[in-house]
Design brief:
Number of helices: 6
Number of domains: 2
Radius of gyration: 18 Å
Strand content: under 5%
Structural class: mainly alpha
Helix content: over 70%
Order of helices and strands: HHHHHH
Largest sheet: none
Length: 114
């Protein structure tokens, strides 16, 4: 994690490296992201086989997942009216899904819900 953070910091501070990474076509960077997310998806599917699915667990899993997928598929036009600081955060479906899952897990008293 530390090495990756230092590399990202160096890329951000060196304009030549920033230009290099910005010149990479979107399909290439999307393919790299797909390859990096596949092990994460595989581990999530393996973990989901160990869970006993109840209505409570399905809500805890499905709502953040669907909100994240919805935001990833949402055209950027719909986010143009948001403040510039919130736009990158809310356009990232993965980030919003994770934050929603953490908030739901900590704020909703799941033990009292049947």
């Amino acid at each position: 994690f530390i090495y990756g953070s230092v590399i990202c910091l160096l890329v951000a501070l060196v304009p030549a490296l920033t230009r290099l990474f910005c010149s990479i076509p979107l399909p290439v960077s999307s393919a790299v992201m797909l390859v990096s997310y596949l092990p994460l998806l595989f581990s999530a599917l393996v973990f989901s086989q160990q869970i006993t699915f109840t209505a409570r667990n399905i809500y805890r899993l499905a709502l953040p997942l669907f909100v994240g997928i919805f935001l990833m598929a949402l055209p950027p036009v719909y986010l143009q009216d948001l403040p510039l600081t919130l736009r990158p955060l809310l356009s990232n479906g993965l980030l919003v899904g994770i934050l929603l899952a953490v908030l739901m897990d900590n704020l909703i008293p799941w033990e009292r819900i049947e």
